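Researcher: Batch entry, complex prediction.
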Amino acid sequence: MLKPIHKIQLDNGLQIMLKEIHTAPIISHWLWYRVGSRDETPGKTGASHWVEHMQFKGTPRFPADEIEKSIARTGGLWNALTYLDWTTFYETMPADKIDLALELEADRMVNSAYHPDEVKSERTVVMSERQGRENSPSFLLSEAVRAAAFRVHPYHHEVVGDMADLETMQRDDLYNHYRTYYSPNNAILTMAGDFETETMLQRIHELYTSLPAGDEPPRIGRPEPAPRGEHRLTVEGPGETTMVEVAYHAPAAPDPDFFSLLVLDSLLSGPSGLNLFGGGGISNNTSRLYTALVEEKEVAVDVAGGLPATIDPFLYSLHLIVHPQKTAEEGLAILDEEIKRIQDTPPSQSEIERAVKQARALFAYGGESITNQAFWMGFSEMFATYEWVTKYIDRLAAVTPQDVQRIAQTYLRPQNRVVGTYFPQNENPTL
Amino acid sequence: MSQPTFAPLNKSSLPGPDDITRAQLPNGITVLVRPNFNSMSVSMAGYFHAGSLYEPGEKLGLADFTSSCLMRGTQQFSFQEIYEKLESIGASFGFSSGTHTAGFGGKSLVDDFDTLLEILSSALREPTFPSQPVEIVRSQILTGLALRSQDTSEMASLLFDQIVYEGHPYSNPGDGYPETIMAIKEEDLVDFHARHYGPDGMVIVVVGAVSPDLAIDRITETLGDWSNPRQPEVITVPLVPALEKTITKHASIPEKSQSDLIMGVAGPSRHSPDYIPARLGNSVLGQFGMMGRIGNAVRKKAGLAYYAYSSLSSSIGPGPWYVSAGVHPKNVKKAIKLIKAEIEHFVNEPVSVEELEDSKSSYIGKLPLALESNAGVAGAILTLERFDLGLDYYQRYEEIISAVTPQDALAAAQKYLDLERFAIATAGQ
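Model: Structure tokens for the complex:
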């Protein structure tokens, strides 16, 4: 499932990771940049995401319309993602057409134009993207919880940015952001699929060796101080449905505690995998929280958990959709009972083995997708190394019941969390 | 610079009569299996004729409610036991409900295929609809409906269906309304299951590291003796007359930053000869690249929306053909005007040969990507069966797509898209 890969670095600093998979005539090509919302200061929030949009506006050699048509004609899948720590561009295409992707990405690493007219029309597109998100109560709640959890660290703001900055940022702000972070020494190229490694390496050399390394990009070094007590907040808005988000400060992805917390999350809220591109998930109906909140006490209609893998410590979040006849307080009380239970008594070894089996199955499903295979390589390099993925199952399997208990005691303390409640307008706040 | 050479596309790797085994069990179940021993997993998907068309008007949502309760308890297993079986082996399985059919789908590691079948059989044949779990499902559905009422996209879509399909079964939302969900009693669920669930017309597709003989034997063992003499005839839906005039309606949802708009008509069914030309034309209109001509006008040039695209659904009956966009409330009128101009252009002039070739090429190239995973292949085979396209459809696909001309696409557009008879639904402030 996780076959060996070929990894090299060019003189200009570009890292390359290639993995041959010959099961289908498809290649997935990704270019990853070490830049995300963590690299933005107030006034420039949303710059990384907007820059990602601007990268689709073309270069002198590849005008936007032409490149878009050329790729779409192949039936290929292409898009980009911007996250807290990284920005990535990908193309999954018929194997015989992949050279187009290679040429495009090498070119737009340095030659994007950022015409003022294009900046102007994209400004309202990005604002519209944000307005669409604002329609969702869970986005409003999540944004408020995150802002409360991070006073100092730039994880404070949403990737899409604040409306105030989307209204005021100018062409040069975006162009400078692009020039600062888009360079070979700040990038990783990952590919998986139906190619010969030697031929592909030669082609990558041809396209990239002439690009000079850039200056080492600046980083914002503002670690979040430890919280000094529980923070509670409310968000009010339209609707009839109460939601609760409980966010605990969590370890960073490279931290050994991260894997213990992943196991804990799997026991509490069900398994989650790394299958962004097909392979799906596994239901969480036998997880501790679903069983307690939805089945036994009927205080919620759904519960989900999430622990994103990040460079710096981020958040472990639990999301509850409260039962129409119950309150946020009732939901939180049951959640706290379940957390106390695992703090008081370690889980059984068999419960951990079950979580490991689930993770293994998710990898097996996800590995069928060549896009996932190429994604995993670059994704893990953004905050650790590819070993983080290849050893993922082993590290989960090494977690002991006592580790899980200790992690629950260490991280899932009220003093370490933000509790946010979305109160629909037709109800009175009770928290 | 040298151009590397890569393996050419291999047509014979597409699913076809040579590697799909199709068998019909005596009780009416059709089984299709395509082995894939490169994989460690197996995917199973299927459908049966128990969609929302079969529910009475005062109990809208009954078909969906019924399918949601199947795994909440059976004669053999409790809810906890079912999910313990599935989740402990990392398998997933579930039911869903559509308009014509209800369906199921799931996957497991290959050694656990029998578990999927065991749960499929138990959930289909002997669900018990226990009281407390039924009430949990009811509260989940009602919460879903409360969230729907706040969702501008879903509400615009609901309103659109009410305008286009007035008096037609397609006007009803599959998840019902709060009052119809409240009106459904436990005995309604039991009765709906008893009347409509049966093997006749059921289709099961299996794709993965399992041989056709084994899969067919196992399905025969678990479902071969199932029968239900009460199963009614399959319901067909009537055609939908065009509206007499353009109708515009708005659903008011306060405090929303963005409004959604959906405008369009009832389009051709998947069985219609108009379907493929319409679909390729639709690609030019609002799909190709970054959402085709609509995306170009509304997003790229005017900067009004993050998404603005057109869609033509694959449906047994006359499914919707529409343009959808999410825009700031103050820009709704402007967006409608831009979209109307694009549709007018689309129905008055044939798309260019180049535009059409772009879309054809995209459709043909997309196929291997869609068929990469077992689940993707299972879905594709289900489509073959559902619309009676023939097992060699994917191997004929290139030929079928290539044959469409700009005039064919124009004729399909003119037949359906009349701006004087449009439904325009908006939802938001």
